[in-house]
Amino acid sequence: MSWRGPAFHHSPEDRGVTVKFRRVSLATALVAAAWLAGCASTRVGEPAAGSATAGTASSQQSAQSQVTTVDAGSPNASSLAAAEQGLAPVIYFDFDSSLIRPEYHGTIDGYAKLLRNDRQRRLTIEGHADERGSHEYNLALGQRRAEAVRKALQLLAVNDDQLEAISYGEERPAVQGTGEEVWSKNRRAEFRLQ
């Protein structure tokens, strides 16, 4: 006696019900996942979106941004080396973007020339994000920004072994505070020459 599959067989109608059940289950799971992904976390001390203080807080934020420099110490050696070459030690990105803006193409070209002319030099590209978004998302966004710069330098004939791309996400803001003026200064990639 040979085995020919399961001891029971489904009728075509039963198979149709099973397929429909699986589709409904999948659709329900997708809706639940989308709903959970859409749930934004609120930081402690921030008013909820619908609360009475939320309108006051947001109007105060838009009326005046708080700007506080975090690390106002003396410039580091890599900043000085970049400045000697006339290169900016940082470039900025648009909101939720890792595209290098055209005004920074000259900066990327300058670093490429510097690295091609001195193969002993190394460059660490640090990607950063503003505080909006989850911690994990901002780390990934910072990494995409650093990788975008690394890939641009590779396209300009810089050796990959001279480059390192890392992300700090929102962990090392250049400026503390809230508002677009502050956030735009934190969406950046910094260059650290060695």
Automatic annotation (TrEMBL):
Subcellular location: Cell outer membrane
Superkingdom, natural source: Bacteria
GO cellular component terms, semicolon-separated: cell outer membrane
The OmpA-like domain, residue ranges: 80-194
GO biological process terms on file: cell division
Biased composition (Low complexity): 48-70
Pfam families: OmpA (PF00691)
Organism in which the protein naturally occurs: Caldimonas thermodepolymerans
Key words, A-Z: Cell cycle, Cell division, Cell outer membrane, Lipoprotein, Membrane, Palmitate, Signal
Keyword match Endoplasmic reticulum: no
CDD domains, alphabetized: OmpA_C-like (cd07185)
Gene this chain is encoded by: pal
Known partners and oligomeric status: The Tol-Pal system is composed of five core proteins: the inner membrane proteins TolA, TolQ and TolR, the periplasmic protein TolB and the outer membrane protein Pal. They form a network linking the inner and outer membranes and the peptidoglycan layer.
The protein, known as: Peptidoglycan-associated protein
SUPFAM superfamilies the UniProt entry points to: OmpA-like
Main function: Part of the Tol-Pal system, which plays a role in outer membrane invagination during cell division and is important for maintaining outer membrane integrity.
Chief place where the protein resides: membrane
Protein family per UniProt: Belongs to the Pal lipoprotein family.
